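Minutes, project check-in

Agenda point 3 was the complex the collaborators sent over. CS summarized: two entities, 654 residues total, and the question is how they sit relative to each other. Sequences were read into the notes so everyone works from the same version.
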Amino acid sequence: MLIYAIKRLGVAFLVALAVSLVTFTLLRLSGDPAAAMAGEGATQEDIEYVRTHYGFDQPIPVQYYNWLTNAVRGDLGISIYLKTPVADVIFSRAPTTMTLGLCALTFALILAIPLGVLAAMYPNTMLDRVALTTAVIGQALPSFFFGLILIIIFGVWLRWLPISGHASWLNFIMPSIALGYYATPAIMRLTRAGMMDVLSSDYIRTARAKGLRPRTVLFKHALRNAVIPVVSLSAVQLGFMLGGSIVIETIFSLNGLGSLAWQSIQRSDFEIMQGIVLSIASFYIILTFLADMLNAFLDPRIRVH
Amino acid sequence: MSDQVLNVEKLYVDIPVSEGILHAVDGISLHVNRGETLCIVGESGCGKSLTSLAIMDLLPKKAVRKVNSLELCGESILECTEQEMSDIRGNRMGMIFQEPMTSLNPSFTVENQMVETLSRHRGVTGQEASNLAVQMLERVGIEPATQRLRQYPHQLSGGLRQRVMIAMTLLCNPELIIADEPTTALDVTIQAQILRLLRELQSDFKMGLMLITHDMGVVASVADRVAVMYAGQVVEEGPVLEIFDNPTHPYTRGLMRCIPIPGKIDRTKPLGTIPGMVPSLVGEFSRCRFDGRWESGASGSSVKTTSLAPLQGKNRSFSVDESPKHFVHFCCDDCLHKSGHQIGEDLAQ
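CS then shared the predicted structure for the full assembly.
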């Protein structure tokens, strides 16, 4: 188990390094940062001054090395636009996005796993069809559209939930549902497929032949094996959700990393964009690592390899 | 108290398929006595596995079971609810499956899977249950049992897993064990060990053993009685020696010719085979079930003829050579005539 954990940790580290390299390079290649920073109407001299002042004249590998060593120390540079340290800005915004992401994932799991299990237990019945339809709608509706529908129903007509801001946990309900619903179909279908596979397996027949109660067979013997691929998928889905939070945060006026990313792109605020991509990627890498660990805990066969 | 551990009368299993209804098991009757091994032998698709699942009430959802009488130790278990059946399964009757590699849950230790059976049926938990599990593992020849107990199925070989399955089935000391081809997936030396073990345990625990196999060699080494199944019916049934000495149904004879016995078979000739395939059992079946499966030499003078006495109330069923336990059943008159046996006076007449 320990060896497995160390191996996964090594892989996670390499992924983080690759992500930082790609992020850095792409942003440098997407335009002249010095020209963007100097702004419109700047003279050639101003641009050159900015270039040398911020070190943009140095070779890319040197710039990358400097940026990375600073980043490891928690120094992500100073925002060109806001004139405050990038790390401070990100730390003030990150909790909102992480909360949103985790709530959305929780919602998706709470909805998708029971639906998937029920659909697998009663395949090709009305129940299965209803679950499938729910899933297809989730896949087909763009999340911004679904978010707007939620706002109209629960915010405008019923006036049950606040439609913007992040003052209380109530503010997170609608954005989490809008974001999480999009991830539901994949998780539900994988749960259904996995569960159907497991339910027809020999060891489930053995469990029944042992006279175990139906709920023991279902929840202990079947679900435990069926959720293993779902855990991995959930980590991937969370990655999509963090990306998708740009749209959802904008709709619900949540001041998270998503809306910050959107603003920074408009302002060509390279330092912040780098910081956001890096922190979302790190969060994603950490969760994937945790998903791997959870899987190893669930499936003893994984631990050996 | 009845000496019959299991008594099944007129068991039918129907499976709806797209072309109609598949009559997989067609009115078979069986019994297993205490301390006796009944081997059910037949080729793939003859309904022997479905028969065992039907007895355990573990048939797939879409299969329909019809049975006149199903008794465990003289008590009818036909009207049992699912709850009552689950109290019986694993407790009074257990089942060992063909595939030891996949029959244990990969996510739980041997200990976990053995202890849950004990806590379900005996209310024994914790250290006491673990100790019982260790004892049973030792009983089935697993060493070192305490160490194996903590392992996961993937850490055990096929033979060990099958031993674990056997130990798990024996935990609650069942009256009947149904073993569905328990050695088919194992290599030959392990097969012999497992069969010897089953035989030994069966006489120690005084339980009834119903062993399903397609291997006449297995039958010869463990059976007390044999039921030969073909196309959903029992075609011949009797004590193992009578079946081997005097196979009466042409199908049983065909099976016998397929066994390689050193010293008894002619090495220069190819081993016997039964031509053709099991007929499809979908829909109403009126043709002979052995259509196209009769060998040219199956009828006629070369085959020893036996005198058959018709059994009362059973169509085309006969007792063989006046033996009280050896019976043969023909699916149609055509079969009966082709077999060339002499038919005695109907006792009823």
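Noted in discussion: The mean pLDDT of chain A is 87.
Follow-up: revisit at the next meeting once the mutant set is ready.
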